[in-house]
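Hello,

Our lab assistant flagged a job as stuck in the queue for most of the afternoon. It eventually completed. Since we weren't sure the result was trustworthy after the delay, we are filing this so someone can double-check. Below is the sequence as submitted and the structure that was eventually returned. Let us know if re-running is recommended.
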Amino acid sequence: MSAGRILLIRHGESTANVAAAAAEAAGGEVIPVEARDADVQLSPLGEQQARSLGPLLREELAGRLRDALICTSPYRRAQETATLALGGAATYGVDERLRDRELGIIDALTARGVEARLPAEAARRRWLGKFYYRPPGGEAWTDVALRVRSFLDGQTTGDRPLVLFTHDAVVSLFLYVLCQWDEKQLNEFLLTRVVGNASVTTLVAEGAGWRLESFADDAHLIDAGLPPTKHPGTARVAE
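-- returned structure --
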């Protein structure tokens, strides 16, 4: 692909993020989500977080927002974030390759729930590590990496900035692919870092490769008087 700047934006806090945090805190096994993953919507705070992205995008892109190529995950929470952030100032496309990682059989279970209800799967994940572990009916991180590579191979943006509204695992795997990290480097990087809700991660072209300019920047939330939220995992299970 050809682009000078990529902005990776995680969706605002979702109702499933809130439910997952409450279930984990209470020691529960099941996350009481109200809809399938694709239909989970933003929480009231998540809507505010999404709106706070608007001024940041206008400043970050220095008047080039209408020139940017903007794409979003098809999932409701990502599209809501894009709609509220852009406020009609620009349009976006939808690409299924930007959807969240599919969790299959462990969807809607907390870490405690996986251990209690699917001990063989919990043991298999510990053995394989989260990068290669594929839950039955779901995806490994490597599967998402293939989606990212496919998406990038199909982009011809010239020098137009690329703005993507997506999910925490997808943001992480864009770094893995574009910064040419290996499994160990990605795991070590994420050991002490979380892709927060409505945060912006920026990559810039440098020579034949890419450089990470900023990771999970959420200063705009603080400027707007909103609390940053750093729900880890993929909203359905603590990893």
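-- support follow-up --
The delay was a queue issue, not a problem with the job. The result is valid. Confidence is low (pLDDT under 50) at residues 234-239. The beta strands are 5-10, 69-72, 93-94, 162-166, 200-206, 209-217.
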